[in-house]
Amino acid sequence: MCAMKPKIYLLTTLLALVGFGSCDDVYDHMAAPPQAYEQEDAQSVDGFTIALGSGFGSAIALTEEALEENTPFEAVKVTATPQLAEGATVTFKLELSSTQNVEQVVELPSESGENAATITPRDLDEAVKSLYGKAPNARELFIRVKYYINDGTSSVMMPTPAVLGPVTVTPVGPVIEEEYYLIGNVNGWNIEDLDDYKFNHSGKDVYEDPIFTILVEMKQPESGDFNGYFKIVPKSGKEAASWDGVLGNPVDGNTELEGDLIIEKSQAMRVMEPGWVRITLNMMEYTYTIQLLGYTKDVVYMTGNAITGLPEWNNEIGAIGNGLQILFADNSSADSKYTFTAHFTGGREQKFPIKAGVWDPCWGFRDGALVLENNSPNLPGPATDGYYTLKLDLGTLTAEYIPYRGDVSVTYHSMGVIGTATAGGWDTDTDLTQVAEHIWTSNAIELTVGELKIRANDAWDVSWGATSEDNQSLPFGTGTTNNGANIAIETAGTYYIALNDLTGHYIIIPTAELP
Questions:
Q1: Is 15 among the domain residues?
Q2: Which of 247, 326, 404, 457 is deepest in the core (most CB within 10 A)?
């Protein structure tokens, strides 16, 4: 009978406090909605006075040293209680919120003892980052305190949590510099020759946008084996011409296309084949990704309502060549540069899918830079009507509209392909369709192995060919009307063909290769 006294006293205390108590081994009732208080260092609820602990006596700026030592400190404490049964104690469950009404919370692990709760710097750092992200900015936080009365065998949560704060905590953030540079075989490992190998960045605060990208050609040397080793030099290292702080990965010669960046004992990453490479750094996470582009340019589509005469906002596969145009390019090199010259209607917008029929992700425009993301914002077109050349550089993430000054008065009544690669040979044209002023396309032309040219008006007065027999550029190229060479087709199949008769840009690509 005597062994039951602590539990009886505990139940009596609870009944006095809340009018009704339960004593289950597992508490399964929902707590009452929390009360919000402005700048509360202590609250009196249910006969208890709960206060911020000594660890929150002032603003906390966490450091790497504090995280390494990880010494617990007092977060909350009970400074007054009603009369409790002998041996009864108060324990705590802490939650952290960015708002006083605790709409969103994360658990803050704690240890209870002597009517107080202690936390560690590491747990606090992680909780703050869960709410706000990793940027090392001072954050205002509120602590919701759920508290329990324990008698050693049972635990009962009190119905009214306390909300204390705000407290100010600055988490430990990763070091992110404003600039990064590529160094490696691509520049002879010359730390004093980095200007041409700077990663692109939006120019925003680096903790708001920690993404850095570079598009670089890693060339086959004139003699010897290809070696695509590289590391990353921060701005401070470049300015000091110092290898201190250079970033790499844990494994020398790592050929994985993604991984972690480290500074201590960093080793070089490696690209195995020559060609164009896009490297992306996420400096908030200290990770890298490598995209091997080789020497073939990707297809990028364009839709919207900016090109005069085209159907608007059509990203369906069946709209390829009409409402869904493929961007032209000067050549097929994987330099991520694209162009499109046409008549634009002022005040309209565009965006650039990378796969027909799929909107996300899609190239768009945000804060002065191209972005490839889900639900990307549209790229605004020119403000006024007129002929413009749109230039996109997906490597530098830039877009610009340049007024077109060429002669736009010359028009043609037909456009077609002709040659041994076509069904009509050199005798009969296979026609393209004019879908907008000076833009001609077809997405279903059957070609065989052979040669072709593109000509206007079923005649040879104006025709487009390759710049030379040795300079065949497929699928993207710029044709010449000055006695151009025949364009060689090496694979039979169904082709998408497009021509811009203002600039001579052409696209000749198997439809099976369209994304």
A1: yes
A2: 326
Q: What angle do CA 261, 266, 267 make, to 5 degrees?
A: 100
List, in sequence order, every residue forming a beta bridge with 218; answer none if it has no partner: 275
Name the token pair of 37: 């208080």
> Is there a domain that residue 409 lies in?
no
116 forms bridges with which residues in the sheet?
A: 77, 113
Structure token pair of residue 142: 């509120």
Reference 97, options 62, 136, 149, 146; nearest CA is 146
State whether 134 and 162 are in the same domain: yes
Residue 126 host element (H or E):
helix 121-132
Q: Which residues, other chains included, contact 206 with Cβ-Cβ below 8 Å and sequence gap of 6+?
A: 176, 177, 178, 283
Co-location of 8 and 114 in the same domain: yes
The total domain count for the chain is 4
**Burial degree of 328 (CB within 10 A; 0-12, 13-18, 19+):** buried
Residues 21 and 164 both lie in one domain: yes
Contact status, residue 377 vs residue 361, Cβ threshold 8 Å: no
Q: Which helix (H) or strand (E) holds 94?
A: strand 89-97
Q: Beta partners for 350? A: 304, 379
Mark whether 20 and 145 lie in a shared domain: yes
Q: Are residues 24 and 76 in the same domain?
A: yes
Rounded mean pLDDT for each run of 10 residues along the chain, 515 residues in total: 37 38 33 40 68 88 92 87 73 88 88 89 92 88 87 76 89 92 94 93 87 87 83 95 94 94 94 89 94 83 94 93 93 86 95 92 90 90 95 89 94 94 92 95 93 93 84 84 88 94 94 90
Domain holding 11, by residue range, is 2-170
Same domain, 208 and 79: no
What one-character-per-residue DSSP string does 351-376 give? EEEEETTEEEEEEEEETTEEEEETTP
Phi, psi (deg, nearest 5) at residue 53: -80, 175
